[in-house]
Automatic annotation (TrEMBL):
Residues 24-124 form the Fe2OG dioxygenase domain. This is 2-oxoglutarate (2OG) and Fe(II)-dependent oxygenase superfamily protein. One of its GO terms (molecular function) is metal ion binding. The keyword Manganese does not apply. It comes from Abeliophyllum distichum.
Length: 176
């Protein structure tokens, strides 16, 4: 909640705006095991995607494998022992009306070592309507995302056969 408070204040909102917007909240836990792969260039551990929630906290063993897309290039994220990684998800991108961008990421496998990661994604309650915070909008034309129920957004994301950030792009009004 301290991170959410800092993001709220950074957007010029009340310090508890994001916390209140989460309501009862919705949390997803994902544990991933990537065994050693003798031909890592021929497989992918986890396809490119962005997380549907607000923030995702990632813990992993000491084997690198997480990559983020930055300026249309996949960049390896170096593991720092004793730390967690925090990714911004689609919910915060929509709530901030695009001021914060969700992180498109993927996982690759290692030829010699197993990789283990545990991710905890946090978002609003399933019945919450995901939309830009009204205090961030000056005019109606400033809205970059269509409102959508969070459970419908998750359904859209999980049913998409196109990876990456395509579910988020599906609810964009203007190309930002």
């Amino acid at each position: 909640m301290k991170i959410a408070s800092a993001i709220s204040e950074g957007l010029g909102l009340d310090h508890d705006y994001i916390e209140k917007s989460l309501g009862e909240g919705f949390q997803v836990h994902a544990a991933n095991y990537y065994p050693p792969c003798p031909e890592p260039d021929k497989t992918l551990g986890l396809a490119a995607h962005s997380d549907h929630g607000g923030l995702t906290i990632l813990m992993q063993n000491d084997v690198d494998g997480l990559q983020i897309k930055h300026n249309q290039t996949w960049t390896a994220v170096q593991h720092v022992p004793g730390t967690f990684l925090v990714n911004v998800g689609d919910y915060l991108e929509v709530l901030s009306n695009g001021r914060y961008k969700s992180v498109e990421h993927r996982a690759v496998v290692n030829a010699h070592k197993k990789r283990i990661s545990v991710a905890v994604g946090n978002g609003p309650e399933l019945t919450a309507v995901v939309a830009p915070a009204s205090m961030l909008l000056v005019e109606k034309s400033d809205i970059h995302y269509q409102p959508i129920a969070y459970q419908d957004y998750i359904r859209l994301q999980q049913s998409s056969t196109i990876r990456g950030k395509s579910p988020l792009q599906a609810i964009m009004i203007n190309n930002i």
